[in-house]
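Today's session is about reading a structure prediction critically. Students often jump straight to the picture, but the first step is always the sequence itself: look for stretches that repeat, for charged clusters, for runs of hydrophobic residues. Only then move on to the predicted structure, which in these notes is written as discrete structure tokens rather than atom positions. Here is the chain we will use throughout the hour.
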Amino acid sequence: MRINDDILDLLREEGVEAARKSQRGVILQPGAIGDCILTLPLAAFMKDVLGLGGVDILGHSEYVGILPGRTCIDSISSIDSIDLHRLFVDPKTFDLKDGDPLINTFSGYAWIATFLGEPDSNFEQNLIFTANCSHSAEVITLSMKPPKDFSRHLTDFYIEHFINQSGLSLQPRQVRPGDCSIKATDADIAQGKELLKETGLEPGQKLVVIQPGSGGLSKCWYLDNFLAVAKELDSKGIEVIFLLGPAEVDRFNDATIKKISRFARCLRDLSLAQVLGLLSCSSGFIGNDSGITHLAAGLGVMTLAVFGPTNPVVYIPIGSAVKVFANNTTAFTKKPLVSLQHELLDVLLA
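Below is the predicted structure for this chain, in token form.
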């Protein structure tokens, strides 16, 4: 009889564990690539501490499409394909019918963390109502930015905010580089090598990728600084590629792009998957406080991040080989800073 009881207890425990692991979570992240990468430690925390069977992300497909299969994110959905704007209306006028696409979007999730909306807003109330139309679900509304007096890393804020909003007795943990890791696939590396061949470079050469842009002009180190670093690297036999995304192509005129091309090869308008492949084949990366800098850091590439007005304590990229260079002066965006150039070169040429 005792043996039978033990077997039943074991089956119950296994059933509870299976039910727990069948639960899933989703994060609504409307931001760009840097915001999405800085969400990864929260996803890892949710998965580990809540024992979820998976965590998905709902965001802009051009930014989140690279995450499944390379990070802790299990799958993605496009935020542009869902009528989330309906959730911003007055709850008194909000209406759902059986089989509504909004109900179907959230029906598989036990935990929903959203960076859209505000606590106690129409969006939050309507999202809670939508999620609970099919089952019981927890909805946690998070802020994209910490308070001005917050002096630790942004990912710590996300996790602590999640804990506070959940009402659970959970212990925060220090974010580890692995929580933000991005692992290039064999296909990514092959694509990177092919890009290098098309550019006239052989895989295996020492290569530093420079991305001189960012989402905000105030965060962009004066271009001549990057050019001076590239010139010195070239003199030491190190190949350099300038990576120009849509923002840089729009911001730089033809003369500026020709000027950059005199110092190093340029690649323009690559997809995020192509950028990932290129970075996976590089020896180092230099960039401003930008999404691509966070991507390089997450890949484990030696990343030199140049910070101007933003606080590196809060926004430093997470990775195993990251070095931050900060200069919050008016000269940052306006003229060469030779001493800062030398600091970068000392690291790269060591």
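Discussion point for the tutorial: The chain has two domains: 2-180, 186-348.
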